[in-house]
Design brief:
CATH superfamily of the largest domain: Nonribosomal peptide synthetase, condensation domain
Number of helices: 13
Organism: Mycolicibacterium vanbaalenii (strain DSM 7251 / JCM 13017 / BCRC 16820 / KCTC 9966 / NRRL B-24157 / PYR-1) (Mycobacterium vanbaalenii)
Protein name: Acyltransferase PapA5
Structural class: alpha+beta
CATH topology of the largest domain: Chloramphenicol Acetyltransferase
Order of helices and strands: HEHEHEEEHEEHHHEHHEEHHEEEEHH
Shape: globular
Length: about 425
């Protein structure tokens, strides 16, 4: 192991400015039903992953004002506890509330008889970190396997490596990137009327499930009406329409995360947050086809890498920002949708003990008070949608109604574009 890595293991670790920016938000996941290992086993596996080094991100203590984070591998097993609130037959969403009551920490793991819940600082990482942690906790990956961590050990910043590789392999991307940059910085800036006295953080979660047969039918209709268009683009447009349909004033711009790992050199990876949130305008007339084409063009020109680089520069300037000002919102709050997908689960060698009840719920803090973050996951063919928002800003029952109307909204798009 390099001497520099051994030294870093003894005290502090310098992280990216983006890690600090993301550390203001948390994400939580609930998955099950599964055969949960005994608590002592979970703690031992968690501690083993932490002891490997800071490249696992476990054992790091996130800070919101500094890029120097403490690395303390002695004692993270205390982060793994048993649920005392979830009774048999109860809605596992209750585990999210129990997680929020636990002492603050980088990562908190809560185990019940048949469900596992994990809450973590977004500054530590995102879905790849969660995938690795779950694989280790369930015994599908051995933290003692040194080869397992090789892709995460590098002396050059992953963002720098991705940027150099993106330009070197495609210098023709620079012109469309510049044009996109100009478009992003020439839009009108609207004045904001503010109120703040009665707005306070109040995290709320609502969940909806689209059954397997409905997803299958929507995919069949998509193949006919919009061949080549991703289901993600279809569901994004449907979500946007759904929130508008229940009476919310919805910002036409949506934020969609793109994994920047695809631009890394072969053999490279990172468990830190490495996704770029790109903004797109949802146009009812262009529909899912227009959104899909815009997403494809963004990937082709390397826009996710450029976005992450710009965000990194801005993150340094934002470290000293007073984040309390975020809670002054418009007199008529405009809902800002962020839609992400974690794809199909499970994918790390473990399995659900009851496929009929299988679910994975991902609740990620919205970026601001007017944000609604919807995370989708495909589980045994069904689509689970989890919305995280503040019910001090948006009515929770209307959010739930919007989620439940997504299949209908998706069908509306498909019927309007069906060949005659």
């Amino acid at each position: 192991m390099p001497l520099s890595l051994r030294r870093r293991r003894l005290g502090t670790v310098r992280v990216a400015a983006l890690d600090v920016q993301h550390s203001h938000r948390r994400s939580a996941v609930v998955l099950g039903p599964v055969e949960v290992p005994p608590l002592d086993t979970l703690r031992a596996r968690f501690a083993a992953m932490s002891a490997v080094g800071p490249e696992t991100r476990i054992g790091l203590r996130p800070a919101t004002t500094s890029t120097c984070w403490h690395y303390a591998p002695d004692g993270p097993g205390q982060a793994v506890t048993a649920s005392t609130m979830l009774v048999p037959g109860a809605n596992p969403v209750a585990l999210l509330a129990e997680l929020r009551q636990l002492p603050d920490g980088g990562i908190r793991v809560l185990a019940s008889d048949h469900y596992l819940a994990i809450d973590f600082s977004h500054g530590l990482g995102e879905i790849p970190l969660l995938d690795m942690l779950v694989a280790v906790l369930f015994g599908c990956a051995d933290a003692a396997d040194t080869g397992l961590w090789a892709p995460y050990r590098h002396s050059v910043s992953p963002l720098l490596a991705a940027a150099v590789r993106t330009v070197a392999l495609g210098p023709q991307r620079l012109l469309p990137l510049w044009r996109q940059h100009r478009r992003n910085n020439t839009g009108p800036v609207e004045p904001t009327a503010v109120r703040g006295a009665d707005i306070h953080p109040s995290p709320a979660t609502r969940v909806a499930r689209i059954p397997t047969h409905t997803v299958t039918e929507l995919r069949r209709q998509r193949d006919s009406a919009l061949p080549g268009v991703s289901m993600f683009a279809l569901f994004t447009c449907a979500l946007h329409e759904a929130f508008s349909g229940v009476g919310f004033d919805v910002d036409p711009t949506v934020t969609l995360p793109f994994d920047v790992r695809r631009y890394l050199p072969d053999g490279w990876d990172t468990l830190a947050s490495f996704s770029a949130g790109l903004d797109f305008t949802v146009d009812r007339h262009a529909g899912p086809r227009g959104l899909h084409d815009a997403m494809t063009a963004a990937v082709g020109m390397g826009r996710p890498v450029a976005n992450l680089a710009v965000s990194s520069v801005k993150a340094r300037a934002a470290m000293r920002k007073d984040r309390r000002t975020e809670w002054t919102v418009s007199t008529q709050p405009q809902l800002r949708l962020l839609h992400s997908s974690i794809g199909t689960v499970p994918r790390a060698g473990w399995s659900f003990s009851d496929p009929e009840e299988a679910r994975i719920l991902v609740a990620s803090d919205p970026v601001g008070p007017c944000g609604v973050t919807v995370t989708t996951a495909t589980v045994t063919g069904a689509l689970w949608m989890t919305a995280e928002f503040h019910d001090s800003v948006f009515d929770a029952e209307r959010v739930a109604a919007a989620l439940n109307s997504v299949p209908t909204r998706a069908q509306s798009f498909l019927r309007s574009t069906s060949p005659t």
